[in-house]
């Protein structure tokens, strides 16, 4: 259940909206049709001004000179407010935005000099999952902020783990975003002996998402690597592991301490005639394929897609009604990520003459999706 408030412009009545994913929003108040005013959640001057008090608090509580403040960016209200406040008092302090690499509306907008709307936006850091930044927030950020850092999902998970180990506090992905950006920035520029602040803006975590975080945290800290090794299929090459009469592909994770240690290991594997591929950066592998290893098959006319299913009743049935029985569903792997949606890897047998119809139905479904039929990692692990 969530609460939000809307203030009437004349009588200042507070309206409470009780929201549940199952029942939607139920407004509890008398005469709530009278003179209601909608305040944008980030693109309103009063909202920006209120969020800017975070910057004021930071400056009041910081006794040493600051190099930079790192701020998570969704619609841009928080960073616009902080920048407007801090730059007025201390223009030398850098204001750096941080976005997930798959939700980078602000970075793209600043690059092009105008607001850019994303076709798709990653939902892992749901607190900043915005397709387009605000008009007013973009105007302020274009003038005042010093840059935007993009970070991966793995890096965010690593920062959640770091915060827990340091303070026993569990941040949501959007809350750990600025921490991941600060670390990436300091590492890239070799920053040492400077004071920086990272705004940790949320702790709305659930166990479904926490499970994903625990799987990826060590990858994000480069303490674990996901590798695939191609082995000759002869007796003794890998005990009791037979898939074909030519070669076997073994997918596994290894613990590492440094990047050079991993490189040395790969060189030793290659020198032993064991071709080894580093798949650590592949989301398809980490989300789906390491759960599907165990057999490979070539399916005729298989179109492979990654869908984002909304977490609500009827989502699966809506998907099935769209594609089945029109086409055969050859693969289906579901990975829940909490309330924001689930990543689903789907294989559907569609002939070339029916591709346009398939895309028309997929678009009408209304779920974000991307075709990954030619993904090289999928080919390696599932079709080779």
TrEMBL record:
It is an enzyme of class 4 (lyase). The keyword Repeat applies. One of its GO terms (molecular function) is L-serine ammonia-lyase activity. It catalyses: L-threonine = 2-oxobutanoate + NH4(+). Residues 303-374 form the ACT-like domain. Pathway: Amino-acid biosynthesis; L-isoleucine biosynthesis; 2-oxobutanoate from L-threonine: step 1/1. The keyword RNA-binding does not apply. CDD domains: ACT_ThrD-I_2 (cd04907). It is found in: Plastid, Chloroplast. Transmembrane segments: none annotated. Keywords: Amino-acid biosynthesis, Branched-chain amino acid biosynthesis, Chloroplast, Isoleucine biosynthesis, Lyase, Plastid, Pyridoxal phosphate, Repeat, Transit peptide. Its cofactor is pyridoxal 5'-phosphate. Its EC number is 4.3.1.19. SUPFAM superfamilies: ACT-like, Tryptophan synthase beta subunit-like PLP-dependent enzymes. GO terms for biological process: isoleucine biosynthetic process; L-serine catabolic process; L-threonine catabolic process. It holds the Pfam family Thr_dehydrat_C. GO terms for cellular component: chloroplast. Belongs to the serine/threonine dehydratase family. This is threonine ammonia-lyase.
């Amino acid at each position: 259940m969530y609460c939000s408030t809307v203030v009437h412009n004349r009588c200042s009545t507070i309206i409470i909206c009780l929201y549940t994913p199952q029942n939607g929003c139920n407004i509890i108040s008398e005469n709530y049709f009278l003179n209601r005013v909608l305040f944008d959640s980030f693109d309103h001057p009063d909202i920006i001004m209120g969020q800017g008090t975070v910057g004021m608090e930071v400056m009041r509580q910081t006794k040493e000179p600051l190099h930079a403040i790192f701020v998570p960016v969704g619609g841009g209200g928080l960073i616009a407010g902080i920048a407007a406040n801090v730059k007025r008092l201390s223009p030398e302090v850098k204001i750096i935005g941080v976005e997930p690499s798959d939700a980078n509306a602000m970075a793209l907008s600043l690059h092009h000099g105008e607001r850019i709307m994303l076709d798709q936006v990653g939902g892992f850091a749901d607190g900043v999952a915005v397709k387009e930044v605000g008009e007013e927030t973009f105007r302020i950020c274009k003038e005042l902020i010093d840059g935007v850092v993009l970070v991966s999902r793995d890096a965010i998970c690593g920062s959640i783990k770091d915060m827990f180990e340091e303070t026993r506090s569990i941040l949501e992905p959007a809350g750990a975003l600025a921490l991941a950006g600060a670390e990436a920035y300091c590492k890239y520029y070799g920053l040492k002996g400077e004071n920086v602040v990272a705004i940790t803006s949320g702790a709305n975590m659930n166990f479904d998402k926490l499970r994903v975080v625990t799987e990826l945290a060590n990858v994000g800290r480069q303490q674990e690597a996901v590798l695939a090794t191609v082995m000759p299929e002869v007796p003794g090459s890998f005990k009791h592991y037979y898939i074909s009469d030519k070669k076997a592909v073994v997918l596994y994770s290894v613990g590492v301490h440094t990047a050079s240690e991993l490189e040395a290991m790969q060189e030793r594997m290659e020198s032993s005639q064991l071709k080894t591929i580093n798949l650590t950066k592949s989301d398809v592998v980490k989300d789906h394929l390491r759960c599907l290893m165990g057999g490979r098959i070539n399916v005729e006319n298989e179109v492979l897609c990654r869908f984002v299913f909304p977490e609500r009743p009827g989502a699966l049935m809506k998907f099935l009604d769209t594609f089945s029985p029109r086409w055969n569903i050859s693969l289906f792997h579901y990975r829940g990520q909490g309330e924001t949606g689930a990543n689903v890897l789907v294989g559907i047998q569609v002939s070339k003459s029916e591709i346009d119809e398939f895309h028309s139905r997929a678009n009408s479904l209304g779920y974000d999706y991307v075709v990954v039929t030619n993904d090289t990692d999928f080919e390696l692990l599932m079709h080779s």
